[in-house]
């Protein structure tokens, strides 16, 4: 088995020194990669900037922006059997990046934002015989929104978790399938949740 794992946040630059991002630590994705290597799978880890060392034995591709993550993931996916998309990508970016550093003017600043590329949706559209596991971090109507994401992005399964997972060492997740059924529920250290997910996929 050879899989692609995406992990960590992405950054979208306002100017040459400032950027938009989120508080993702990358722990969940890195734990998934480590667990997959431990069962003998080949792993391509595409990661945004985090303070973690990549697991030994995986192919590591560091990226920074959402576009870079999309490019690396789309290039790696055809040689894989599946993807576990645990990355917390930025959904929006500035319409234009300012060259240099934006200086204070004493007044308010308005930024026009546009949506970034949808990495998971693109992987889902090109999956063919491959399987796709997405992650859905939802605060309102979590189950409904997760199922909409699963169907919209052509996932086989989606891992539903809450905003409390961001930056935490623990997680509480439901694994949902295409029918909307909960096929598994795991809670505990992210390393334990990741191991349970990989063990479950290994039995499919």
- What is the percent of helical residues? 25-40%
The CATH architecture assignment turns out to be: 3-Layer(aba) Sandwich
At the fold tier of CATH, the topology name is: Rossmann fold
Instruction: List the domain count as a whole number.
Output: 1
**CATH class category:** Alpha Beta
Uncertain residue ranges: none
What is the mean predicted local confidence, pLDDT?
96
Order the strands across the largest sheet as they lie in space: 5-4-1-6-9-10-11-12
| Major sheet attributes | 8 strands, mixed
CATH superfamily: CoaB-like
Multimeric organization:
single chain
Q: What is the radius of gyration computed over CA atoms, rounded to a whole number of angstroms?
A: 17 Å
* Overall outline: globular
Keywords:
204 residues, alpha/beta, Rossmann fold, eight-stranded mixed β-sheet, two-stranded antiparallel sheet, 12 strands, globular
């Amino acid at each position: 088995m050879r899989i692609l794992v995406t992990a960590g946040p992405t950054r979208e630059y306002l100017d040459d020194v400032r950027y938009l991002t989120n508080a993702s630590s990358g722990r969940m994705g890195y734990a998934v990669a480590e667990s997959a290597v431990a069962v003998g799978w080949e792993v391509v880890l595409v990661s945004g900037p985090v303070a973690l060392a990549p697991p030994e034995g995986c192919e590591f591709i560091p990226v920074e922006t959402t576009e870079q993550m999309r490019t690396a993931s789309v290039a790696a996916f055809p040689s894989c059997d599946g993807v576990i998309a645990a990355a917390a990508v930025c959904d929006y970016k500035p319409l234009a990046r300012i060259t240099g550093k934006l200086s204070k003017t004493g007044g308010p600043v308005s930024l026009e934002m546009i949506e970034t590329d949808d990495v998971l949706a693109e992987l889902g559209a090109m999956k063919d015989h491959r399987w796709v596991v997405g992650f859905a971090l939802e605060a309102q109507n979590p189950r409904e929104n997760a199922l909409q994401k699963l169907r919209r992005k052509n996932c086989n399964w989606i891992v539903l978790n809450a905003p409390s997972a961001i930056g935490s060492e623990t997680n509480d997740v439901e694994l949902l399938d295409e029918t909307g059924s909960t096929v598994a529920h795991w809670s505990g250290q992210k390393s334990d949740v990741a191991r349970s997910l990989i063990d479950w996929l290994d039995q499919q």
